[in-house]
Every structure is written in structure tokens, then in C-alpha cells.
Amino acid sequence: MEGLGAAASVIAVLELAAKVASLCLEYSSAVKSARSDIERLRKHTNSLKITVDGAQELLQGPAGARLETSQKLLESLKDTYSQLGGIATKLEAKLNAGRGAKVMRRMGLRAMKWPFESKDVDEIIANLQRDQASFSAALQIDQTVKILDISRIQGDQTSKIFDISRKIDLSKLPVVRGAAFDSQANEHDPKCHPDTRVDLLAEIDRWIEDPDGKCIFWLCGMAGTGKSTISRTVAGRLSARKVPSASFLFKKGDGDRGKAAMFFTTIASQLAHQLPSLASHVQTAIEVNPTIADKTKGEQFEKLILEPLNKYKDDPCVPSLVSVVVDALDECDREDDAIAIVRILSRAKEAASVRLRCFITSRPELPIRLGFGQIQGDYQDVALHRIPEPIVKYDISAFLRHELASIRDRYNSQAPEGLQVLPGWPGEDIIGVLAQMAVPLFIFAATVCRFVEDKGRSNPTKRLKKVLDYRTATHDSRFDKLDATYLLVLNQLISGCTNQEKADLLAEFQNIVGPIVLLARPLSVRSLALLLNVGVEDVHDQLNSLHSVLDIPSHIDDPVRLFHLSFRDFLVDRTKSTTNDFWIDETEHHKTLTDRCIQVMEKNLKRDICGLQVPGRLRSEVDQQAIEASLPPEIQYACRISESIGMVDDLLALSPADAIEISGFLRDIKRFVQSSLSIIDIAPLQVYASALVFSPACSITRVLFKQEERRWITVGPVVENDWNACIQTLEGHGSSINSVTFSPNSKLVASGSYDNTIKIWDAATGACMQTLEGHSSWVYSITFSPDSTLMASGSQDNTIKIWDAVTGICIETLIGHSGSVNSVVFSPDLKLIVSGSDDNTIKIWDVATGTYIQTLTGHSSSVNSVIFSPDLKLIVSGSDDNTIKIWDVATGTCIQTLEGHSGSVRSIAFSPDLELIASGSKDTTIKIWDVATGTCTQTLKGHSDCISSVTFSPDLKLMASGSNDTTVKIWDAATGTCTQTLKGHGSWVRSVTFSPDSKLVASGSNDTTVKIWDAATGTCMQMLEGHSDWVRSVMFSPDSKLMASGSDDNTVKIWDAATGTCMQMLEGHSDWVRRRKNSSPRL
């Protein structure tokens, strides 16, 4: 480094630090005895690299020359460079020692030796920490000087810069426009009249103020009972009292207001803008977790709301009460999201420094009830439909009295003298009749008032008479009261018409109002006209008669909305198809909408529609207004809605016999999009450049759009003829994957890693849905509960954690083992968990209480594998003491000790009929044991090396075994005869599994491949290539359609079992992926 300046020296140190970290990683996978020291050195080297990387950024920046203290770091940099050089030299020397090292590694032997003692590592780390501290101190000095200098020059501009910075950081939180109660979209929505809901609002006030009150108040009620009006009133009263509060008013069919994706970021943003001190903590959370907006809802609540609020402790300036108002939770698109929100908000009780109160309204739908059923004791509730009728009638009467008087006064203010409504109109008798018609539906009263005042129509007295004349419909057995609410308005459209006129009017209604109530998000009159291919005037004329049931804005470019979701429910109710003239056939209208969307796309979409021109121009550089101008609302709707209506998925599901060309093209273009999605998202015009030229030469998409390839690309890349196995690479873990498993419903894949975390992935899309953090060391074993709602994980930190698979919240931490937990599994009835540990014991835990019921002792060495029998009566364990033990679940008694192996028992499996147990051992044999007698009925010989995996076929006819001798053997379960020896792997076979239909066998190997075999013929039907290191674990999904594999290349791959296509690659671990000594029937 002689002659180099500080900036150049930094680069040299960076390169060496990266090299040392990389060498450590290679040693980590090969040298088990020193893994702790290796990991410590690797972490400290990476930490040093981060600090030096920061120094490089500053020194090479525009102000680098003025960083005087940092420029004097040269001597420290030389010392660090010298030390790292010495470390690298020793590591390389040992790594390259012996010409046969690579050969030995291929054979599964680890020949490398760690060149440092623990004390040497301690000394190295101490020196690195000293240099790192010097770098950090110098940088802090320079930064402080710089800040002070700026402060001296600019004075009070520092605080303004902070405010701007905070706003910029908070802007990283995506929010849903129109979700807050006081947003412009909700400006004209009603609140409770001062004389209505008096007792209920007083009860809600008492709940809010009660320091010992429940954290949630659930107000439920049938459609039209006034829940939303009450929630807006509660939110308004809290705001008037200056209580820091956030609100989210769900609205189905109103874009993001019907989704939960941005629920918690919206709540956090609202609270942060009201509480400056909270904003700083939220800002810190964003800085620490830059991708927090993509994290699970549970993590968002914890990091953006709960933890910032808890940092308020002992701050006298902080308010004692913070509130959240959630309206119409039942209108959340996904039921599991609604349930998750209930569960997560129940954690409001964990807010230690403030009283966090959550007010929720919803219909009493089953999923919502189930959600509240899971948090018994954490909420207070009131059902509006159970409030005594006299109280409801009194409130509705007060509402009608006020609204009708206002209508009278507004009408009289513009009516000529002599035509005005009488001062006492409509009178208490009429109000009483109307209230009785409405009870218990406030929506009936509100709709009647809008109908009576329908602007541009006749005298309100005449309109009211029509209501009173119609009251017999409320007693018609064909209609419920909600039907009568809307028929009152709609029947006026066809009153007095001839049959032909009625048919014409109903057809117009169907063509225009039908799409409006079915749209996934509201559109304006202009956009509706363009989408439906009708005149703007036609849409306007049709809607002009429906002001009572639709919120129709005065401007044709503002969206048309439903006043209440019950109007849609009324129109699409299939049970009323023969009695409701206005009934809308949902299926047929969706087909029509789909056709119109396709036509709009065909007519308007074109190359470079936004005028980007340059293929390298980033999406982030394009002004949103330019996008809106090029893609007006009706085109955006047409492009996005195809996914919502499932059109593409339906077409993909067509069998080749039905539509070979359509199905083939859609599959190909789906692969095309998936393979280039990340670059297209960053730079859209790359769809014509890199996305096309890097596609396989024979891809249908590439051939079809060959003319779109850029002419300036004169020499294209070398590509394969067809799509290869791997579709996507999904990243996230920071170390090796140790265990992978499918959820029993096949919807999720979970992975446990040496980075101490568990990740839950969407099996269909490969998206990481949750990252579960909490273990302080490596995660060895993971398993789903039979109903897919819970997960359990076992770790090197000696604990088991139970997780909510929906929210990602850790429900319980089970403490009791004194050694690493190697295997965990739920009982079939979901009540128990059994775990096996390096402390030589097995523990049975109560899932509900988190306590261990029994400790099963008897093994004299580590317990590698535990399984429940399907009938829940037995537990079987395999151990390094060469034995298998069978335990009685009820008593904890060891019923049988199965002895006979002369080596460690690596894998055990129950037969589906519970009569047999198979065990595979390091002694190269498989033994079949009679569960009832404990006798070894057969010893299967044939393998020439350690057997790492055994399994029965679900139909009980066959067994499969995988061995370090690189073969898979298929055995006749009845006779013990080896019927097939499947050869083809080039290294140890780590895992074997049957598909649930018993037709296929999958095997994963250290040769980095997964193979799928025909169980009957022994033919290798697929060789799944794509892993770059050992494959340790494979497992079919319960429906036999998918297969997952875990590898030492730190990835999990999901494969199509029929085609051998790699559908997803889940990437992010930085160390091995394996099923840690776990013979659970799932991965």
C-alpha cells in the first residue's frame, strides 16, 4: 500500500476484507469443529467492511478532501491491510493444502483444517475492533465538524432540514388515499345526529377512558344498521378531543381501501404525523428496516406502531391515550387478512407507555367472528342488531325528524310562495310510521331521505307520499326490509311503463349500473363510458335517477361510488333472481366486462406508450402525471383487472386437448414475465431489449415478437433453445437453509436457516410472506400444524417457538431443553408438540399453555428424530445411541427399545397402518420393526454406505431408501425384497420421499440435483438440475403436484413434479439447506 492515498487504501482494505469473509464462508461448510470461531471472524470482518465501506463513500464524495481527520487514517489502514493479508494467506494455504482436497469434498469428506486457535481468533478480532473504532471515531469527528459548520452558516435551517428528512422518510410508508375518516373522499359522509346513539356513544366513551378497559371495542351489526356512521362519529369525537388517532375505513371495490396490504403503514403514517416524537422512532424503524413496507402485517405493527409507542415510557409530554378506528373490516378483500388484523390489534395491550385503544366495526361474518374467537378476553363488544327496538326506533325518529326538516327548509328556500311545504311537515305521526318501516335499518331511513329530496324532481310531499304508498312492500314475504329499501327507489324508474318500455329501461340499467356495482375499483362517468363503449350522456342520464343509492359527483371525471355495499348485495343476490326485476347476473356481467377490457387494451396499448424512448430509462424517473396522461383510468383498469378476475389462471388451466395453442402461449409468456420481472419493473422498455434477447431461442414469445428486438443489438447473447428448469430466484435469508417444509394445504413453504430466522413463502408465487425472527441461534427444524395455522421451530438456542402462520407472531417460547432442539413435530390433533434434543431427552408440550407435560428419558445420546403415530398414541425416536424407542404418549413410558443397529439411527418412519416402523442407520442397513412386539421382522441389506433417509409409500406397498452410496432403492414392503436400485446420482442421496399418490419417488443428492423416479418401473422420469451444491432434503406437496428441495447452495427450489420445471427458487440463506434429522412426514 506504499504510495497510496487514504481513498485508495480504503479500496484495498475492502477487497481484502471481502476475500477473508468469503474464505471463512467456505471453511464454515467444511470444518464443523471450529464453526463458532469461523462465524465470529466472518461477522467481525463483515462489520469492519461495512465501516470501511462508509469511509470510502465519504472520502470519494465531493467533500472528501475536506475530511481532514479521516484523511489521516493512512497508518491505521496500513495496519489493517497487513493483518487481513496475513489472515488471507494462512486461510488460502490451508484451503489449498493437499491435491486431493476437491476430490475428497466431492466424496463428502471434509479434509480442511481451520488454521487458528480460539485465542488467535480472539486476538485478531480485538485488533480488527480497535481499527474499526478508529475509523468510526475519525468519521464521526469529520461529520460533527461538517454539521457544526453547516449549522454556523445556515442557522435555523438545520431544523428545517430535519423536518424535510422526516417527511421524506415517512413518505416511504405507502398509504391508502381516502382511508382516513377525515379524508376528502369521506368529506360528505354522515355522522350521528346529536340526539341519536346517545347511550351507545357514552358506552364507547367510558371504554376509551377506562384505564383497565379492553384494548378492542368491536361494534358489529347487520348491513344498514349504521356501523359506519358511528365509526365516523367516534373518530370525529376523538379528533375533536385532540386524542392522537388513526383511522382506516375499508370499502370493498374501492381499490386499495378494500385491501389490507397497506393497512398498518397507513395507520403508522397517520399517527407519526400527529406525534412528532413518535415520528422520530418511526423514522428510525424505517432506516433499520428499509423494506418494512414489504414485511408481514405483524412485523409492521410491531416495528412501526408498538415499539415506537413503547419508547415513550416516562416521557411526560406524551399523551396517555392513542386510538385506532377501523370501519367495515368485513369489506376487506381477503378473509385471512381480516382475521390477522384482529389478532394483531389484540397486541395493543402490550403498549406499556400509552393506552392504545382500537375501535372496530364489521358485519358479524363468520371469519370476523372466528378472529375474535381467537382473542377471547381481549375485547368488549356490542351488537347493533341486539339493541332493544324502542331505543333504535327513537334514534331513527330523531334522525328522520332532523333530515326531513332540513329538506323542507331547503326546498322552501327556492320554491315560489304558495308552493312551499307547510312548516310542520311531515308531522310526528308520519315520522313514527317511517321509523317503524325503517327499524332496525338506518340505511332505510337515509335512503328514504335521499329519495324524498332527489334534486330536480317533484315536491318532497309527493315524493314522501310514494314512500308511504310503498310501505306494504315491507310486509311482502318475498322481500326483506333491505330489499324494500332499494325497491322503493328502483321501482320508480319503471312505474307506469309499458312492457316494452320496462324491458328497455331494465336493459339500460343492466348495461350501465351492472358494471358499476361489479367494478373492482370505482371509475368516473367519462371512464365508464369509454370502458363500456357508450356515450357519456347515456351514462349520465342513467345515473341521474339514482342519486338515492349511488354517490354521483357533479364532475364527470370524479369516481361514482356506492353509498352502501348492501346495494350491491341486493342486486346480485342469486336467490332473488326471479323476484327482483333489477337482478344482475354477476357471472354474465363479468364476462362482458372482461370482453370490454380486452377490447380497450387492443385499441389503446402500443409500444412505449409513455414515451420513454430510451431502453435504460428507469421507471422511477418517469413523472406520475405523464403516466396518468398516457394511461387514463379506463386503460389502467383494463390492464390490471384481468388478474383480479382470474382470466389468465383460467386459461392456463385449459388442458392441451382443449386449447393447445392458447395454453402453450400463456405458459410461455408467463415464464417470460417471471424470468425478467425485476428488470422490467425497474426499466420498462427492457421488455423489448434484454427480456427478449435473453429469452430462449425457441420461446413462443420470442418467436412471436421477433420483430420487436432492437436492431442495434448486433451480437446477441448465447441462450438455450428452451426454457431451463429455474424460473425465479427468491432471496431473503442471510445464511444456510437447514430445513424446508410444505404446509399441509400446499399453499405455503417454510424454511429455517442458520441466520436464526424462519421464512414463510407463497408456494404459488414464491413471494416471501413472512420473516419470523426470535431465535438467537440456528434454526434446525420447522413444522406446520395439521391445519396450517401454526408453525413450530426448534433451534440451537435450546428453545422451541410456536408461531402464528398467518400473522408471523411468536405465540409461545417453549423453554426446557438444555441442548439443541433437533426435531419438532405437532400431534395430529394439534394439541401437543414433541421435540428431540442433543440433551438426550424428548419432551411433550401442551400447545395451548406452552408448558411441557412430560420429559422422556432413556436415550444415552442425541435424539435425532421424533415422530407421532397418526393415531396419536405413540411417539418414536431415533438416536445417536444406535437405538429406536417407542413411547406411550399418555404415560410417557418407554414401551419398547428397538436394538439391533450398530450405528447411529439417522431416519425413522411409521408405516401408514401404524403396524411397522422402518429405521435407516449408519450401519448401512434398514430394519423393519413390529410396533406391537418390538421385534425386528426384517433387515434390508443392499446399500454399501450410511442410510440417510427411509420412507413408506402412502399405499403401504413399497419403501424407499437413500444412501451415501449414491443410490436409491425401492423395496417391497411385504417381503423386504429390493425391487429397484435407482442409479444416477453422482454423490450421497440425502433425502427420499414418495408422492402422496405413491406413483413417484423424489430424491435429493449432494450432486446438487433432484431426481423424480417412476416408483413402479424405476425409470428416472426427471432430473431436476439447478442447485449448485448438495441437495439435502426433498418433499412432495400433499397433492403430488409440487416438490421442494433444499440445498447446500443456500436455496430452496420448488419444482413442477409433472414437467420437472423449477417453478421457484427461494434464495437468501448463506449456508446449507437441509432437513435436520427430522423424519416428519413433511419437509
Task: Describe the model.
- It is a single chain.
- The protein has 1083 residues and is of the alpha+beta class.
- The chain has 5 domains: 6-155, no CATH class; 169-387, P-loop containing nucleotide triphosphate hydrolases (Rossmann fold, 3-Layer(aba) Sandwich); 389-475, no CATH class; 602-708, no CATH class; 729-1067, YVTN repeat-like/Quinoprotein amine dehydrogenase (Methylamine Dehydrogenase, Chain H, 7 Propeller).
- It is 38% helix and 20% strand.
- It has 30 helices and 40 strands.
- The chain has a 5-stranded parallel sheet. Strands 8-40-39-38-37 form a 5-stranded mixed sheet, with no helix packed on it.
- A hairpin with a 5-residue loop joins strand 27 (926-930) and strand 28 (936-940).
- The longest helix is centred in the N-terminal third of the chain and has 37 residues, at 118-154.
- The protein is globular and about 110 Å long.
- Residues 203-363 form the Nephrocystin 3-like N-terminal domain.
- WD repeats lie at residues 730-771, 772-813, 814-855, 856-897, 898-939, 940-981, 982-1023, 1024-1065.
Condensed summary:
This protein is α+β, with helices and mostly antiparallel strands.
Question: Total number of β-strand segments?
Answer: 40
Question: Helix/strand-derived class?
Answer: alpha+beta
**How much helical structure, as a percent, in the residues?**
25-40%
User: Which stretches are low in confidence, meaning pLDDT under 50 for 5 or more residues running?
Assistant: 98-110, 153-168, 1069-1083
Major sheet, described briefly? 5 strands, parallel
Strand content: 15-25%
The CATH architecture of the largest domain would be 7 Propeller
The CATH class label of the largest domain is Mainly Beta
What fold name goes in the CATH topology slot of the largest domain? Methylamine Dehydrogenase, Chain H
User: How far is the first residue's CA from the last residue's CA?
Assistant: 51 Å
WD repeats: 730-771, 772-813, 814-855, 856-897, 898-939, 940-981, 982-1023, 1024-1065
Pfam family, one: NPHP3_N
Domain Nephrocystin 3-like N-terminal: 203-363
Keywords: Repeat, Signal, WD repeat
